[in-house]
Description:
Oligomer: single chain
Distance between the termini: 66 Å
Radius of gyration: 26 Å
Strand content: 5-15%
Helix content: 40-55%
Largest sheet: 5 strands, mixed
CATH class of the domain at 4-168: Alpha Beta
Number of helices: 26
Number of strands: 18
CATH topology of the domain at 4-168: Glutaredoxin
Structural class: alpha+beta
CATH architecture of the domain at 4-168: 3-Layer(aba) Sandwich
CATH superfamily of the domain at 4-168: Glutaredoxin
Low-confidence stretches: none
Amino acid sequence: MLNRLAFEKSPYLLQHKENPVDWRPWGKEAFEEAKKQDKPIFLSIGYSTCHWCHVMAHESFENQAIADILNSYFIPVKVDREERPDVDHVYMTYVQSTTGHGGWPMSVWLSPELKPIYGGTYFPPEDRWGRIGFSNLLVKIDQLWKTKKGELIAQSEEVFHQIQHYAASPAFQEGVPSPSAFERATSYFIKAFDAVEGGFSDSPKFPRPVCIQYLSRMAYRLRSGSVEKKRIEEMIDLTLRKMARGGMFDQVAGGFHRYSVDSLWHIPHFEKMLYDQGQLVVSYLEAYQRSKEPFFAATARRTLDYVCREMRSFEGGFYSAEDADSLIEHGSKEHSEGAFYVWTQEELKEILRGDYSFAAFIYGILPQGNAPEGSDPHRELIGKNTLKVFYSDHEIAERFALSTEAVLEKRERIQKTLLEVRARRPRPHLDDKIITGWNGLMISAFAKGYAVLGDRDYRDCAERAVAFILKELTNENGDLMRCYREGVSPISGFCEDYAYLIQGLLDLYDASLEAAWLEVAIALQDRQNELFWDDHSGGYFGDTGLDPTILIRMKSDHDGAEPSANSVSALNLIRMARVTRDSQFLQRAEKLFGCFKATIERSGGAMPLMLAAYDAFLNDPIEVILIDEGSKEGDLWIQRVHQFYAPDLSFTQVGSKELSSVFRLRADDFHQKRQGVDGIAAYICQNQSCGPVVTKIDEIKLDR
């Protein structure tokens, strides 16, 4: 028997279509039934590649006895948090405020009016680890609903009122934040930094590219050679090296797993999310621009190649995620987290033969498995090795008396061999939703990959993804839709979809100087303003407010695994203001900073990308104006500019063609600069002043 989820397209919802639980999708039918039967709603929120979502599904939702309780006493509703971040945001705020933590699977009990009455995350099926079992909790909530419904609803109303009050703030404050916010946030990250392993926590260790982006800007502002500049750059570089050499990076195929469960970046939570790939590629490319260290460029390239190979649809859009879990072998029903990625010593000996001793040294292969103590609580990795590079290429070269070139060749041969063998294993589940916003983050990565690394294939990947979104994920009114799988979803795009895609378009413009991408970005920004801007207090709401089932319009005020749409929007507005000279963009950005002034000043470490935007707002950009009549060398000049780390670069081109309307405020200046220039050339400007015309490509220098 299939339940109502069989008619959905979300991979997460479809995973539950055969549960004995009478699941319903989020919507009017479920809510009316809850009112009709006077039953609470049990809301379960997760996503298809979530390991603990799988665990709770197998333990509880596939359990007939537990399903009988759910079906008898509640109206069960399933939500894919990736499809509906608006639903997730409201109830995650409730769970975090009442329990002190959050995560997925998220379990919330609601009144028929959708007010939360109790919530948490994962619950074991029976009492365990000092936690109440799910079946017992269901019975207790049912008893309370039947005997003390009035008290439950009164408590629900009180807590919900507090959440509404929280959502209504921060309110706009006159003036911009104090520059002292930078010092406090930087000090916070320095104190939190792990000087041995990198990162800004002990365990688990999460990659937070937003922190890297903020710290990169802070180092950029400091005087060359200063102790503080060197210290911050060392923090960035150590973190990036440790992540890329750890098990959190897929040493065989490239691409990053979600996070490391230990403090060593060794044993990952094995799922791979598109939004991590997009943001981390940018972090590694910016580190390469600054340091010229080939390792950072190689890590970015391997990640981009992985996404091209494994996470791209034939139409050009990028898929959402790969699961942490997979079958242990073909034909078996037994599955395990990381099964696709780990290796026994014996199979590596058989596969690699003469290269085994080399691989065993660099990857730390052990007969009992190499998981550090405490990183395998469920004993799934006994005898299994997660590949981590324990030594630098220089140390490996010394150990085996090889050149560094020979070390790289040997490692590439081993990786190719292991990739061929691993390809025959059962692959993890692929969530093949194409999410507009996450594609925007990946478009940024491919655009920057082309600009910095010069690989035309990366630009093609970015442009194909944009073309797919504009064709399949844009409705007849020009509004974005949220996601696509076997056709476009009826869910409208959220603020993050607009913000991330606009950022991708701006990065594609910077990489190509094709004004068409800038025009689309500005048109989408206008629509974002209409749909999401808060005229009263400033800032952008996450949703349009048109869905009556979303009881609170929330504003994203935290840069986490996914950056806040408000932070990304602030940077977008500043970038558009710089390149077009249209002050309206800057005025709106200033209001954004007023909206989040209290957060920026009190806890800037929670919004590092907003602080990065504020830094951009306070400082004049380096402006490069390329004079080019369509020569073959134009792309080389563009790529020359992108060899430098210049976070506030404003890049434009003047050619023989009619200027795009987006440059209407700059037309006279552009035409003046073009006069008397013969052939390709460039101006480099800062502080409202331009240097002499540059006529040789190697004379372009943007170093501070």
